[in-house]
User: Fold this.
Amino acid sequence: MALTQRLRARTRAWIDRRSPPQTGPVRIHRRRLYILPTRGGAWFGLLLFTMLLGSMNYSNSLGFALTFLLGGLVLVAMHHTHRNLLNLTVRAAPVGPVFAGQPALLAVMLHNPAGQSRLAVAVAADDTVDAQDDAVTDIPAGGDAICRLSLTTRARGRLPLPRLKISTLFPMGLFRAWTWIRLDQSVLVYPRPAGRAPLPPASPGLVEGADRHRTGREDFAGLRRYGRGDPPRLIHWKSYPRTGTLMVKQFDDPRQETLWLDFAMVPGGGVEPRLSQLTRWVQEADRRGLVYGLRLPGAEIPPDRGAPHRDRCLRSLALYAD
Assistant:
C-alpha cells in the first residue's frame, strides 16, 4: 500500500510539472496529448497476435487477410482517437461563491475549431477531490459544448480549481487518449453558517454619520432652492410656474439602528465556530434589511446594507487569517 501511494504521489508530481496552472483558454497540442490501449484494446491486440500465429502455423491466407484487415482497423481507430482531442480549446466559466459544504458547480467549455464533430469527449476532475462522475459530451464542428462538474467544498477560503482530465474512447474503445489541464482559477468558499446565538442588540445612530437632510431618502421634509449638482429627478416642477424658481424636494434620513457584528463578542471559543456564527448573523441581518457592520481582528467593515455589503462581509469572513 505504501509503495502504491508513493507511486501515485510521484505520478501526480510529474503531471504537475508537465501541466502547470494556466489562464484559459488552453489549447490541446500534440505534446500534451497521451494515448494508450484500453484493457479491451490490449485483449484485442492479444487476439490479433494469436490469429497471426495460427495463420502462420497453418499457412492460411484467409487468416492472414482477416488479421491484417483487423490490424488496419486498429491503426485507423488509434488515429481517430488521437485526433478526437487534438486542438480542442478548454476554458472554465467563473464559479460563484458558495458556502462550505455546498457543491461548487464548475462549467467547463470546450471549443472545436475543426470541420468535423468531436464525439464522446469526457471531462473529469482530479481524483484527489470529491466530484461527480465524468461528464461526457459531443462537440459539433466549429461549435462549443459545456460539461458541468459538481465539486464538494469542505473548508472556507479559496479553493483552486482541480486538475481536469480531458479524455476520449472514440471511436471503438480500443484506445484511450487524454490530457491534463490545470486552469489558474479558484472558487471563493464562505464559512458554513452555524450557531444558535441571537443577533446582538443594535445601537441607534445615523448610518455612516450622514446629515439628516439628504436627497433621495424616505421622509419628505419640504422644498429648497435648486443647487448645482442636484439630481434632476428631485426637481419639483409643479412649483416652477408659480414661483419662477426651481425648487428641489428634500428628504430626511430617519435615524436607524446600527448593528455591529463583532468577532470578539461571539459566544464560544475557536476561530471557525465564531466565523460560522458571524456568517449566520450576516445572512440574518441581510434578510431583515438591517444596517450592520462587521468587526474582525485587524479589520473593520463600516455599517451598510444590501447585497454588495453582504458579499463584502462574507468575503472577509472567508479570507480571514488568524
User: Anything to note?
Assistant: The chain is about 30% helix and 30% strand.
